[in-house]
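REQUEST FORM: STRUCTURE PREDICTION
Request ID: SP-0412
Submitted by: Lab K.M.
Chain count: 1
Length (residues): 120
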Amino acid sequence: DGVACRPGHPQLLAALPDGRHVVGLPGNPFAALAAGHTLLGPLLSGLAGRGPKAPLTGRLRGAVTARTTETRLVPAIRTDDALVPVGRDRAGNLWGAAMADVLAVVPPQWTGPEVEVLPL
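STATUS: Completed
RESULT:
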């Protein structure tokens, strides 16, 4: 199975017969950060016996285009009333992630403004 998320592709999660897990993260820096947050974090929480956290949401402001078939992770700054994209969200660029305090989860064919939010 594949993971339809950008950035954050390609990634791998496998459970070995002896109970160990193998995680493969992308080579591009921002893609690896995004994959770590969406794949590795939940895996470690589950292995530690913690259930999933309640999703956080926010209103995304600015010019953000949804993809047709993939979820898009957009680095943003949380303000009192909105999530403001910081830009520079390409897979090989950490500038956007360094300036952001959240990732806005923009699902395929999203029309906005409400999105799920992943704190960084």
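NOTES: The beta strands are 5-6, 12-15, 21-24, 56-59, 71-78, 83-85, 102-106, 114-119.
Reviewed by: T.R.
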